[in-house]
Design a protein that fits this description.
165 residues, mainly alpha, 5 helices, flat
Length: 165
C-alpha cells in the first residue's frame, strides 16, 4: 500500500501537482536505503536535491566597488592645460582684420576661400540632382497608385462577369 501511494505521489510530482507536504513524504521515502528497484532513478534525483539544498555559497561579495579617482584628476588636468594654452595663444582684446595679415596669411586665406566656394558650388549641383531624383520618385509613386486602381478594376469586373481566376 505504501508503494502504491508513493507511485501516485510520483505521478503527481511529475505533473507538478504535489504539495510541499507530499514532496516531503517523497523525500523521506527516497532517503531510506530500501527502495523498490524500479524507483531507483527517483532515489538518485531526490538525493541530489537534498545534497544541493545543503550547499551554501561562501565567497565574499564586495558591496562597494573600488573608486579610481586617477581618471578624474587626469581629465581635470587636461582641461586645465587646454584652457591655459588657449588663454596664452589668443589676445582677446586685439581684433585682427584682413589688412593686418601678412602676405602668406593673406594668400592662405584667399586659397581657403576659393576652395570653400568650389565645394559649395559642387554641393549645390549635387542637391539639385537630388531634387530631380525626388521628383522622379514622386512620379513613380503616382504610377504605382494608378496601377493599383487597375487591379481593383480587374477584380470588380471579374466579380461582375463571374470570371474565376
Amino acid at each position: 500500500m505504501v508503494l502504491n501511494n508513493i507511485e501516485k505521489l510520483l505521478e503527481k510530482y511529475d505533473n507538478g501537482e504535489t504539495t510541499l507536504k507530499e514532496e516531503q513524504q517523497l523525500r523521506a521515502y527516497f532517503a531510506q536505503n530500501d527502495v523498490e528497484p524500479h524507483l531507483e532513478s527517483y532515489k538518485v534525483m531526490f538525493q541530489y536535491y537534498s545534497k544541493t539544498k545543503q550547499e551554501k555559497f561562501t565567497k565574499d561579495v564586495p558591496l562597494k566597488p573600488k573608486k579610481n579617482n586617477l581618471y578624474k584628476w587626469i581629465s581635470v588636468a587636461a582641461v586645465a592645460v587646454l584652457m591655459f594654452g588657449a588663454y596664452t595663444q589668443f589676445d582677446f582684446n586685439k581684433k585682427r582684420t584682413i589688412d593686418d595679415l601678412s602676405h602668406e596669411e593673406l594668400l592662405a586665406y584667399n586659397q581657403t576661400k576659393e576652395a570653400l566656394n568650389l565645394i559649395s558650388t559642387k554641393f549645390n549641383q549635387g542637391s539639385s540632382s537630388l531634387n530631380a531624383l525626388t521628383l522622379a520618385a514622386n512620379e513613380f509613386e503616382k504610377g504605382k497608385k494608378q496601377i493599383s486602381h487597375i487591379g481593383e478594376f480587374t477584380k470588380t469586373t471579374n466579380k461582375i462577369f463571374k470570371n474565376k481566376q
